[in-house]
Structures are given as C-alpha cells and as structure tokens.
Amino acid sequence: MYLLLSLLVIAAIFSARVSSKFGMPMLIAFLGIGMIVGSDGLALIEFNNAELARRVGDLLLIFIIFDGGFQTKRAIFKSVKGPALTLATFGVIVTAAVLGGMIHLITKLDLLTSMMIGSILSSTDAAAVIMATRQTPIRRNLATTLDVESAANDPMAILLTTTFIAAIKGQDGSGWLPLTLGLIWSFVAGVGIGWVTCKIGRFLFDRLESENRGHYFVLGITVPLLAYGGAEAINANGIIAVFFGGYWFGNTDFTFKRGVGHFLDGVASFSNVALFLMLGVLANPSGFSGIWPQAVLISVLMILVARPVAVLLSTAFFKFDWRERSFLIWGGIKGAVPIVLATYPAANGLDPDGHVFSIVFFAVLMTCLLQGTTMGPMAKLLKLTVPLKKKAPYTVELYATKRCDTDLFEVHIDEGAVSIGKLIKDLQLPSNVLISSIVREDKIMAPRGDTMIELGDVLFLLSPVKSIEEVTAQLTSPDDDEDPVPA
After folding, report:
1. Is 3.30.70.1450 the CATH classification of the domain at 406-486?
2. Region 113-127 average pLDDT
3. Are 363 and 298 in contact (CB under 8 A)?
C-alpha cells in the first residue's frame, strides 16, 4: 500500500507538468489518477468512507487555506480588498442563493437541500485560479482580485454549508434567528481567533532560539492547527480562523520566517495532491450515468447565471469595465473545497446514495474543463494580458534563526532601467547594500566592481529591509512601480 501511495503521488506531481503545459487545472490530473486506481477503475484502492474523507479533507484544508492566507501580501491585499472580499463574502452568498433557488425551482428538490447544494458549489478554487493567472500574465489588479477572492471565499462557503446542514437536521428546532446569530458569531469569533493565533505564533517563534531548524518547521505545523482548534473550542469557524491567522502571520516579522514560509508551501502542495487523489478514489464515475442531466443543468446555471449575477452585484460599486467583469465571471473555477463539502451531507446521514456528492463532483469537473482550460484564451480575447516577465532559474535566500532587519531581495533590470550600462562600482550604492549575485542569460555569476549591468539581469541584493525601496529606485527606471520581490 505504501509503495502504491508513493507511486500515485509521483505520478500526480509529474502529471501536473503535463496539465499545466496544456493550460489544464492540476486538480483534473490528480482527480483523474484517483479515479483510475479507485473502485470504478483498476480497483487498486477501495475507499468509500465519506466520514473519514470529510475528516481527512478538513485536516488537509487547514494547511491549504493557512498557506493561502500566509502567501497573501498586505500591500496586494489592500489594493483589491474591496472587490475581492465582497466577492468572497457577499458574492458567495449571492451565488449560493441564486443557484440554490434555481435548483429548487427546476429540479423540485426541497428548498433547504437545494440551498445546501448551492452553498457547496459557491466558492472558487485557489489552486486552479492562481495557476491560471500565473500561466497567462493578466493585469495585476484583475489577477490579484481573483487570487484573493479564491483564497478567501472558502470559509464563507463552509459556513453556509454547515449552516444549511444544521437547518436540515433540525428543521423543527430553533429556527432561523439562532442560525443567523450563530453564523455571525462563527465569522467574527473566527477572525478574532486568527488574530490571537498570529500573536501567539510570533511570540513562540521569537523565543524558541533553537539551533535545530527542524524545530521551527514543527512549530510551523502547530500554528494552523492551533488556530483551527482554538476556534472549534468556542464554536467559531475554524477555517475562517485559519485563513485570517495565516494572513496576519504571513505579514508579520518573526524568526526564521523565510524557511517556515517555504516549508508551509511544501506542506500545502502535498495536501493539495493528497486531497485530490483521495477525492478521486472516493468518486464513483459509474454513478454519473444517473445524475449527469441534473449535473449538467446545475453546472450551466452555475457558470452562466449564478456566477454572473454574483460578480455584477459584488462589483457594482467598484471600477471595473465590462471586459474585466466578464473575465471575473469566467474566473469562477470550482475545485477541492466543493468536493470536500460534498462529503458533509453523507457524513451527516443526508446523502446515503451519494447523489449530492456525484452531482457536485461532476459539476466541478465541468467547470474545470470549460473555464480552467480557457482562462488564458479568454484573457487574450478580452485584451487583458500583460507582457510575461521571465523568471530567474536560480534563487538566493537568506535563512536566519535570529531576528534581523536585513534580507535578500530580487530586482529585475527591465528596459529603461537607469543602471543599464553602468559598472557596479559606479552605482554609488549605500555601504550596507551588496549585490551578492547576478543571473544573466540563465547563468548565475559572482559580480565584481567592474561588472556592467545589462538589460534582463536579475540582481540579488543583500540589503536592510527599510532601504530596499530606495535602492530599487536607484537601480531601475523612475517609472517602474513594481514592488521588489523577496528572493
């Protein structure tokens, strides 16, 4: 079994390269491999435990969503927080309400069940969206809006889904007012726990002072678990606490932050692979024959009605033109969270035949195939792309187990940069700033005083954090408004 699992993960990782080459969301490849080895495929793995899948899925989502918050930079978040958070909260509610209402009217399912399905399908997938916006460089404000929305909208979808499940199980109970108050408490208290977790995490990292780097990695795993567990202990929403805890923690200075950030990214990547493989194995493709007409109809309503209504209402008071709104509409790719949420009804005894899970699974596949593979061409058709900035094949990083105000930064020398054609010794850089290495024509070189700066160079600067903006302006063109990227 362990050999098989290792081979599956290896196959999934390398299939991601193939899928990205063709502009296909990675989750399609991961889910496909899971379905191939599952009970409806080669039958190498038998797995049909919805409750276990929900528990494992929740655990993996903790690390995926925490890393999504951790990687969201404050400056970028502030620039698009209005439309992005409106889409991630109000937009999710509108999507769930519109889709749930149409499902109720067309399929004749009862209203609460219809709203539960609408809530399950209301969020977008961060992994699929971010991969699409990276593959085809899109206007910064537009790409960031989609990225932040996809990273931040999972908590609201989870909150709505669990609320409607509770309503279905207790229809004769307390009514809508307590549910509404519970929803507000879950959100507000979850945000508060996220903030407290950030403060605790920073305190612990700054006082660990261990010479063993592994201790920092272990501590890094406990921070998202602390956020989730703390929220659950007071009946708040753990996923909301995890996302906001990750956001504040990622925008806070603490000891060994760079190393922990890379480690968390690796944990999140593994969690994504493991999650999609598990859900692929759990799927029952043979059961699609009985639900595909409903699933296709729901997918069409989700893509062509619910998402457009949510985007148009959510962006009504923000400055987007019709092309940008059209792209935001087409960027509503679904992914892992809806499939995990689709296990909740079965785990609560509300989907014994797997009907809801199959519908959601099929709908996610449809939106990934239709929208995920066409986001690049759509951006080009709407003329929303920007020139692709070449990435350096090397990276130089500074790992420190003590707090310091110096870091390594990556600066690109683009056309028009004032430093082009100048020798390093003539740049008059501050005495506490050093060009540690240069990447030129895909080769890394050690610079000297008589090394000339050329167009396309990537400079790695060892500089005090407070000085980097001034130094970047000194090296690049006056009209270059790009932020320096930490190495």
Report:
1. yes
2. 89
3. yes
